[in-house]
Design brief:
By secondary structure, the chain is mostly beta strands. The protein has one domain: Peptide methionine sulfoxide reductase (Metal Binding Protein, Guanine Nucleotide Exchange Factor, Chain A). The chain is built from two helices and eleven strands. It has a six-stranded antiparallel sheet with strand order 5-6-10-9-8-7. The protein has a three-stranded antiparallel sheet with strand order 4-3-11, with no helix packed on it. Strands 1-2 form a two-stranded antiparallel sheet. The radius of gyration is 14 Å and the shape is globular. The model has no long low-confidence stretch (mean pLDDT 95).
Length: 148
């Protein structure tokens, strides 16, 4: 439901806020996103390894959902995984993302989804660095970067 309120963490507000879920038709998403953003974020695609504009982003800031602006990952949690995609060891808050099983491509993986608009962001793996041991492997095209 479009008027459903969810609780997410806002980096700008330094705390939790209530915000509305974002629900749009495929036609609306296609008008608002580039074809590549739509293919990946709404169609559960993957950008080519080492092609993303945020792979080598090292400035201080927050990575947000390209579809709805939900804060997802802080630059302090980013690390060089060597995989070809921006990688993080934790989200800004557990409430800002959702996960679900992905059985595509003959594998079992854990998909990472924006909790506010259900955009496909990437996958999470259990081979990351301390302190969490997780590697959130994200598509640059599903994210936008806000300097802080």
């Amino acid at each position: 439901m479009a008027d459903e309120k969810i609780r997410v963490y806002s980096v700008k507000e330094h705390g939790y806020i209530l915000t509305e879920r974002v629900v749009k038709s495929d036609e609306e998403w296609q008008r608002e996103l580039t074809p590549e953003q739509y293919r990946v974020a709404r169609g559960k695609g993957t950008e080519a390894a080492c092609s993303g504009s945020l792979l080598h982003q090292h400035e201080a800031g927050v990575y947000q959902c390209v579809c709805c602006g939900n804060d997802l990952f802080a630059s302090t949690g980013k690390f060089e995984s060597g995989t070809g995609w921006p990688s993080f060891y934790e989200p800004v808050a557990p409430e800002n993302i959702k996960t679900e099983s992905d059985f595509g491509f003959g594998m079992v993986r854990t998909e990472v989804i924006c909790s506010r608009c259900d955009a496909h962001l990437g996958h999470v793996f259990e081979d990351g660095p301390p302190p969490t041991g997780f590697r959130y492997c994200m598509n640059s095209v599903s994210l936008k970067f806000e300097k802080m």
